[in-house]
Amino acid sequence: MNGHVVIAPDKFRGSLTSPEVAGHVAAGLGDVPVVRLPVADGGDGTIDAVVACGFERVEVEATGPAGEPVTASYAVRDEPGHGRVAVVELAEASGLRRLPGGSGAGSGGGLAPLTATSRGTGDLIAHAVRHGATRVVLGLGGSACTDGGAGMVQALGVRLLDAAGAELPPGGAALRDLHEIDVSGCLRGFEVVVASDVDNPLLGPYGAAAVYAPQKGAGPADVAVLEAGLARLAAVAAHTHGLAGAAEHDGVVRSMGVAGMPGAGAAGGVGFAALAFLGADLRPGIDYLLELLEFDRHVRGARLVVTGEGSLDEQSLRGKAPVGVASAAARHGVPVVAVCGRRAVTGEELKAAGIEAAYALTDIEPDVERCMTEAGPLLERLVRESVAVHLGRG
After folding, report:
1. 49 CB-side CA count, 13 A
2. Are residues 65 and 32 both part of a single domain?
3. Would you give the distance in Å from CA 91 to the centre of its chain?
4. Which residues contact 65 (CB under 8 A, 6 or more apart)?
5. Which of 33, 153, 231, 260 has the most CB atoms in a 10 Å sphere around its CB?
C-alpha cells in the first residue's frame, strides 16, 4: 500500500486506549488509506496495543498486588523463527490500579508499599510458558510493588527463605529477613525480553525505592525499609550458587553488577529479578514493541506517520512512544506529526526529536475537562483541521 498514512499512537491516559486513538485519527483522515498500528512503551496499555495488531488475548486468574485474586490478561502470537511469543504487561496483575481503591495507599494505608507483591506477574508468565510460550516479552510500568520482583520469581518456583528456612511473606519489607535463595525449582525453557523505558538502578538515590516508592504511598521511613530489603536481595543473590551457574567463580561480581544495571530498578525492582534470575535481555520499550509489531514493514512507502500520546512533554522526549516512532520513521524518510491532549514542548524541541509538528486538543478546546470526556470527537476534529495540511489537503 503506497501513499498511505501509518497511525501509530500511544494511549491518551484517562481518556482513550491506543487502539481508540488510532480509530479516531483514522476517522478524522476520512478516505485516506491508513494502517493502524497502536503502540505502547511497555507500560500499561501494552496488551491493548498488541492485541489490536494481531495478538490473541488470554485471560487468567492471577494474584493481585494485595494478595487477592484478579482476572488479568496477557497476549500471545506464533512468530516465525521465535515460536510462541507471549507479551506480559506487569500492570495487568501487579499495577497500582489493581490495589483496592486503585491508589498507592490501597486499603492498608501506608503499609501497601511494604507488602504489595509482583506475584501476579509471575502467575501470568508461568501460565504462558506452560501453554507453549518460548519467548516472554515483559512490559514494565505502573507497578504497585517495590519487592524487587520477589513475588514474580516466587510464582516461577524460586524459593526465598529466612534463616529458619521458611518462605518469605509478600512485599519488599520482608526481604530484610532474606537468608537464602533456592533457584532449583525455577521454571525454565523460555527466554525473556524486558521492554521498559526506565533506566534506574536497583539501589541508591536513583533506585527503585528512593524514586518510585513514594508514588506508591511510601513515606520516608517506608522508603528506608524498602531500600534495606532490596539491598538484602541484591546481596544474597550475589552469593547464591544457583545464580552463578557454570561461572560460579565470578558470581558475586556478576550479580552485584545486575543491581547496578540501568533498568534494574524498573517496576519496583522487577527489572532486577528478570535480569538476575531469568537472564532477561533488557530493551527500550518502544523500540522493541515497534520491532514486534513490524513497524518498519508497515512504514515503507508511507506518506506520513501520525503518532501521539495524552501529554506530550519533556518526559516524552526521553524515549517515550512518540519519539521512538519518529526515530523509526526517520530511517525510512517518512515525516511524522503528533496529536496529543496537551502539549508542553516547543516546536524546536519537537523538530529535534524528529516530529514536524504537534497538535493538541487544548488548541481547539481550552476546557481541559471537556478534552478528557470528549477526547474522541475532539481528536477527529483536530485531525481534520490540522493533519490535512501535511497531506496537501489543507
Report:
1. 32
2. no
3. 8
4. 93, 94, 95, 96, 98, 99, 106, 112, 116, 117, 118, 120, 143, 144, 145
5. 153
Same domain, 30 and 116: no
- CATH classification of the domain holding 183: 3.90.1510.10
Specify the CATH number for the domain of residue 17: 3.40.50.10350
What pTM, to 2 d.p., does this model score? 0.87
Alpha-carbon distance of 374 to 365, in angstroms, equals 10
CA 35/CA 47 separation, integer angstroms:
19
Q: Does residue 363 surpass a pLDDT of 50?
A: yes
Q: pLDDT-derived band of residue 3, with 50, 70 and 90 as boundaries?
A: confident
Mean pLDDT of the chain: 89
Residue 137 lies in a domain: yes
Other beta carbons less than 10 A from residue 16's beta carbon: 21
Q: Categorize the per-residue pLDDT at 254 as very low, low, confident or very high, splitting at 50, 70 and 90.
A: very low
Q: Which domain holds residue 335?
A: 5-38+302-391
